[in-house]
Amino acid sequence: MGLHPLLCARREPRAQSGLDKLVGYAIKYYDDFVKPQKRYRAPSDKERAALADLAGKLRAFGAERDAEKVQFEVYEVGKRHGFEPLRDWFKALYEVLFGQTAGPRFGSFAVLFGCAETAALIERALKGEFVPDA
Length: 134
Description:
Elements (H helix, E strand, L loop, with lengths): L4 H5 L3 H22 L10 H17 L5 H14 L6 H12 L7 H8 L1 H12 L8
Helix pairs in contact: 3-4, 3-7, 4-6, 6-7
């Protein structure tokens, strides 16, 4: 995963060396403490259908920047696919896409990462790219 192009465009040359050092520390922390705890799983058939639906909705959003609008659609997809309680839908998103049981507010993540990029992430998960020996 990379930084959204809007974030990259804001980097000023004089701040790059300090920022590069901080990013290096963040990557080391991630590699040492976060990555070993991740446990990706394959989606169930119900989750697979909902994830495919969400990927389509995110692609249709294009360059949407309104996180609340995207979050609303994430909720709607979960409801449409019968997730009850709706918390189960979000847990599935986090486990399948991020390898953890909780995560960021999904609409905000999609807007920051990019709706098309988030759709591509979902499509990779649906292909089994994050699950070992899938």
